[in-house]
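New to this. Look over this protein:
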Amino acid sequence: MRDPSGHNLVLSHGPYRAEVVTVGAGLRSLSHDGRPMLAGWPTGEVCRDYRGWVLMPWPNRVGDGAYEFGGARHQLPLNEPERRNALHGLSGWVEWTVSHHDDSRASLTLPLVPTTGYPFVLDLAVDYELSDAGLRVTMAATNAGDVAAPYGTGHHPYFTFGDGPVDDLTLTLPASTWCPMDERGLAGPAEPVDGTAWDFREGRRIGDAVIDHPFGGLVGTQASIVAPDGATTTLTLHEGFDWLHVFTSDTHAPSRRSLAVEPTTCPPDAFRSGVGLVVLQPGETHRAAFTITGS
């Protein structure tokens, strides 16, 4: 029987082991010295909660799925109907092509064809590579059409440290701003974190904070999560990523058992607000990369 997530590509290097799937080019698992670093999903099951998803050509939400670009109004299908949003792009439930796979690296590609609400032509690529530094993820999009295209990207890893709640984790974010969110998960204008409960620049325990917010104004490149036993996951941002979206998984079952720290190019609703929106000209390529390290 075929796995709902397509082919499973196993990577290993030193203490690291990862699994990448061809449906959505998603990251199913990552471990360090045998310790699971990500809350993934088992072989034979459909990916749930957008775990390990590649978010292209937009991350998070487009309110009402409606936006204007290039003098035209576009209407995306609403795959979050209860909130009237278009969520997490168009590449997640699509079979990608494996262009390279060896012991420590997997590269996948997808020609994104024009579709309802997104009549643009993109060539997408994702590369996963394990090294002594951990797992480096590189995401690229090339405008293969003859008109400019709106674009954003992100990745959706859920970090885990066993069965304990996220309350006991210490979170450090190099972010000087945060965005309030409305009941539909759409972002308002960025505000300074100074003097607020959203200031994690010095690192502090999450406690009972309910977080599902974008953080920007980055003053550094590294975010970290430290468990009570000292186990640490570090996420290092490289080129292209200017935002981090953090989610304490309160709406999942069981709740608050994993922490999403998502590198993104923009906050939610960028197709409408224009904040962080990338405009890809014909022939132009946008690249963004990050690394996950365990210790």
Notes: DSSP finds one helix and 27 strands in the chain.
